[in-house]
Design goal:
heterodimer; A: 303 residues; mainly alpha; 70% helix; globular; B: 662 residues; two-stranded antiparallel sheet
Chain lengths: 303, 662
């Protein structure tokens, strides 16, 4: 562990709220609008942190604990996620299991906090959340297994560190399929189009947004920040596979990874601009498809 | 060993004493529970000694039964299983004191405690026995004692039915075990486990038949899909503290038996590992899917035991692959993860069944869709149930994550660099375990969320009351166990060393080397858990500070503008699970009965969903109906005339005598 390994965490903490801004500006560009400020999420967070809160009488301490546990788990997960070639603060064999477990913990408490309100809309969102995530989990793990087999490494930091031009040259299709699967996982886990529409205004069609309808004030700020961190971390997961170059200079690598991260946000924005969200019935097919794509990649490595 | 013999004597004395006291009296409960607790404490002394590296202890007493010998031995493998058995027996017994109090005056509690003591004794003997005859007798003692406990409320027909299914299933399993032991005895000319372990059987031919017999025989007790049919019937029917004991540790005797059998059978061919992984995947995935489709809280938990047995079997399968290919990493992590999950499952499944028992005790119903909002009325039960739910979902920082981490790590380490024949099952394990994890989160957010959160869905809840301290204490201790194993994971995994040395033929240096390679990532996991808890504390304080001088209001839940929300409009367990049960509809066969709303002003509409067990409906029911038809032709043999029965016996003896003289 050197000082450099603090940087991915620091960047995630400070810059993750910028990602939704970039995505929204990209979408605004496609729609010919001016769009909200790049720093809108920071303003939202600041405003919410200064507010009081309203709680439903139905709710219990679970509802209040949900956002806190979620943020604590997301922050811990942030320590495990490297950025490009820059290793994470904590790197050990199979650290991605802890990473996936912590994201699972976020989900568990978001869902029970939603159920705590007794609202059927939130129940609906919670039901869809566990439904979709149960299907993304295998895709994520098969993709990680493929990466582990391809690189011969068992930690996210060393896996990303050893993905090189040679890997892309020799087994481009494998890595390409892995990136595709991880990209679908990223979109599904962060409630983006084509799985969920973050801009929807009808409770019946929401997934993530509807689960947090009743949260307000600092609690909601925690939730927004958790969501931004999650987007950043899963983005870093995709980026780790995509970025094969290592310039030798760690600072240059970091700059490259940072550029890649915002490039990825632009890509998400483009995806959201050019396609509509899928009907809920087709989402499982997409997610199972992601698992199948990852499985094909894995089979290719078994030659 | 003296301690253990002493403990068993106390159990036997306790059993006799509660039966003699007879009178429906609260002292019966305390006497029964007290003897179990004392026996468990005594029994734990040698268990801890052996696990921490003490010498293996044995006692042999000649026994006049043919081929029988009263031969008990406490080796590390036995000790590893004995520890959760004793712990959960004691805690469930304490819980039972409070749980059975409602029956006081209505029914004599002597028999319940009699069978409870015998069940604990039976489990101890099963784990300690080293002679096949003694083992089978202990196995039968365990099965019968638990049968009588399952049929505690025998005045209800559903309970009698469940008891009957359990009775038949367990004896069919025993039949396969009988064949297993007889075949093994014929091969080796002995009924002694130590002889079998030393001699072994040649891998060709009989070994594979023996393996299949053991998988079916022990798998019936453990609950491998599709041999699991008795679990979802018997667990809900039994009193909850007995369900906890049966689901938490009794079914693990099947896993123990399978492991013990594997030590007799020599070097396994590759397909055994493949087979166990296939069984583990089907039990795990189908178990959690059926759990998701249930509306009965205890039935849901029973299906979850099938799932967890699947996870344990996945670990064992990975370990067997390691034995076949000589890969110490797979052996240590596969068997180690499976064994740790045995203990972990005993803790959280025991906890969850006790929690379900408190809910049943407090509200009088097990229907998830009739509950809701219980957290406000039963805060302790709810908090401990939540810990159990997070643990069983395999989420950090609790114990379920640790054992699944070991199995995953083994599969990843083993799968990264090996050829397809090993890598394919291991990656299938990875994908399957990931799916199981995702579905378990769905299942337990449903179980916890619908039962304890939201608004009450029926008047059952208004009667609800928190359990008394005898019921709360065991739940609290089990929840603490889940947290402690999560936080002291490297220490716990380190204690597997002696067990793995005795189970496998690996040299101690290899075992400890591979365990050390596991404990270093585990210490990072623990570090992550500590950081998580520290951050949690900081955030709690931060939130309190932020809200300290601000307006915090209470209002109604946002109903999207609807003015007349009622509690019945909440999402129910079946609606919560519906997307998943629909997607896997082919496997589940959920039956829906819908009366849709009609007309402009619809008055009545109903929806009823039932998910019967597909293997019991499609596989066993037709077979048993056919057998029943066929056997009913022999009914004239049984007519109730005792003198003729005596004649049957006499004729049989004479025939045997003639056959013997031949």
């Amino acid at each position: 562990m050197n000082t450099l390994s603090f940087i991915p965490l620091l960047l995630a903490l400070t810059l993750s709220p910028l990602l939704p801004g970039v995505i929204n500006r990209t979408k605004a560009f496609f729609a010919g609008r001016h769009g909200q400020p790049l720093l809108q999420t920071y303003f939202d967070l600041w405003k919410l942190l200064k507010k009081g809160a309203v709680y439903s009488r139905t709710t219990t301490w679970i509802f209040r604990a949900g956002p806190i546990i979620g943020l604590a788990a997301a922050l811990t997960a942030g320590m495990l996620m490297p950025l490009g070639k820059c290793p994470a603060l904590l790197a050990f064999p199979a650290d991605f299991l802890l990473f996936a477990g912590l994201l699972g913990l976020v989900r568990f408490f978001t869902v029970v906090a939603a159920l705590d309100t007794g609202s059927s809309f939130e129940g609906m969102g919670a039901s869809r959340e566990v439904f979709f995530s149960a299907l993304t989990e295998p895709a994520l793990f098969i993709a990680l297994a493929t990466l582990a087999r391809q690189t011969g490494q068992l930690s996210l930091s060393t896996m990303f560190g050893s993905v090189s031009n040679a890997h892309w040259l020799h087994s481009g299709p494998v890595l390409g399929l892995v990136v595709l699967a991880l990209m679908i996982v990223l979109l599904a886990e962060n409630s983006r189009i084509p799985v969920d529409d973050p801009n929807t205004h009808l409770e019946l069609t929401m997934i993530h947004e509807v689960m947090v309808l009743d949260h307000s004030g600092p609690d909601f700020a925690f939730i927004l920040y958790t969501a931004a961190l999650k987007l950043w971390m899963l983005g870093a997961l995709v980026l780790g596979v995509v970025l094969p170059f290592s310039s030798g200079n760690p600072w240059l690598d970091l700059a490259l990874a940072l550029g890649g991260m915002f490039g990825l946000a632009v890509v998400i924005g483009v995806v959201e601009s050019v396609m509509a969200r899928l009907r809920l019935l087709f989402v499982p097919q997409l997610l199972i498809g992601a698992g199948a794509v990852a499985a094909v990649a894995l089979i290719l490595t078994l030659r | 060993m003296t301690w253990l013999l002493f403990a068993m004597a106390i159990l036997l004395l306790g059993a006799m004493a509660v039966l003699l006291m007879g009178r429906p009296d609260r002292n019966v409960s305390w006497l029964g529970a007290g003897s179990v607790v004392i026996a468990s404490v005594l029994g734990c002394v040698p268990v801890v000694q052996v696990l921490s590296g003490g010498s293996v202890e044995a006692v042999r007493v000649p026994w006049p039964v043919p081929f029988g010998e009263f031969f008990l031995e406490l080796d590390p493998l036995t000790a590893w299983f004995l520890f959760p058995t004793l712990l959960l027996s004691a805690l469930s017994a304490i819980y039972g004191v409070g749980y059975l109090r409602v029956w006081q005056g209505r029914r004599s509690l002597g028999p319940v405690w009699f069978y409870y003591c015998l069940l604990v004794l039976g489990m101890m003997l099963v784990l300690l026995a080293r002679n096949a005859v003694l083992f089978l007798i202990a196995w039968e003692l365990m099965a019968l004692a638990s049968f009588f406990l399952v049929t505690f409320e025998h005045e209800r027909e559903s309970v009698r039915e469940a008891g009957w299914i359990y009775f038949v299933a367990t004896h069919l399993g025993t039949a396969f075990l009988l064949a297993f032991f007889l075949l093994l005895g014929r091969e080796t000319g002995s009924m002694d486990f130590t002889v079998w372990a030393e001699k072994g059987v040649p891998t060709s031919g009989p070994a594979s038949i023996l393996f299949l017999l053991a998988v079916i025989g022990f798998g019936t007790k453990a609950g491998f899909m599709p041999l699991h049919v008795w679990l979802p019937e018997a667990h809900p029917a039994a009193p909850s503290h007995v369900s906890a004991l049966m689901s938490g540790v009794m079914i693990k005797t099947g896993i123990y038996g399978l492991l013990r059998a594997l030590t007799f059978l020599g070097r396994p061919p590759l397909w055994w590992g493949w087979g166990l992984i296939a069984i583990g995947l089907s039990s795990g995935v189908l178990g959690v899917l059926f759990a998701l489709a249930q509306h009965d809280l205890k039935r849901l938990l029973a299906y979850h035991s099938v799932e967890n047995i699947g996870i344990i079997t996945l670990g064992l399968g990975a370990g067997l692959l390691g034995v076949s290919t000589g890969s110490p990493v797979l052996i240590v992590l596969g068997f180690g993860g499976g064994l740790l999950h045995v203990v972990n499952h005993a803790l959280f499944k025991g906890l969850l069944f006790l929690g379900a028992g408190s809910v049943l005790h407090g509200t009088g119903t097990r229907e998830i869709d009739h509950l809701g909002g219980l957290l406000k009325r039963m805060p302790w039960t709810a908090a401990t149930f939540l810990i159990g739910a997070v643990a069983i979902s395999g989420l950090p920082p609790l114990n379920g994550f640790v054992s699944e981490f070991l199995i995953f790590l083994g599969a990843f380490k083993g799968g990264v660099s090996t050829g397809g024949a090993i890598a394919v099952p291991l990656f299938a394990l990875v994908a399957g375990l990931a799916l199981i994890g995702g579905l378990a989160v769905a299942c337990f957010t449903k179980a916890f969320g619908i039962v304890f959160l939201g608004e009450p869905r029926s008047e059952h809840v208004s009667r609800a009351h928190e359990a008394d301290w005898t019921m709360r204490l065991p739940m609290l201790l089990l929840a603490a166990g889940c947290v402690l194993i999560g936080l002291f994971a490297p220490v716990v995994v380190g204690s597997l060393k002696t067990v793995l040395e005795s189970l496998t033929t690996l040299p101690p240096a290899v075992v400890s080397g591979n365990l050390a390679a596991t404990t270093s990532p585990l210490s990072f996991v623990v570090l992550g858990a500590v950081i998580f808890l520290a951050l949690l504390t900081v955030l709690v304080l931060l939130r309190r500070n932020l809200l300290a001088r601000r307006r915090v209001e209470a209002d109604v839940t946002w109903g999207c503008g609807y003015a007349q929300p009622t509690a019945r409009m909440q999402y129910t367990a079946s609606s919560f699970a519906q997307p998943l049960t629909d997607l896997f509809g082919l496997l589940l066969g959920t039956k829906k009965k819908i009366t849709p709303p009609r007309g402009i002003f619809p008055e009545e509409a109903t929806l009823k969903t039932v998910t019967p067990d597909i293997s019991s409906e499609e596989m066993y029911r037709p077979i048993f109906e056919r057998v029943n038809e066929w056997l009913s032709q022999l009914r004239w043999v049984q007519h109730g005339k005792v003198q003729l029965y005596v004649l049957y016996i006499a004729v049989t003896l004479i025939v045997l005598l003639i056959w013997g003289l031949r």
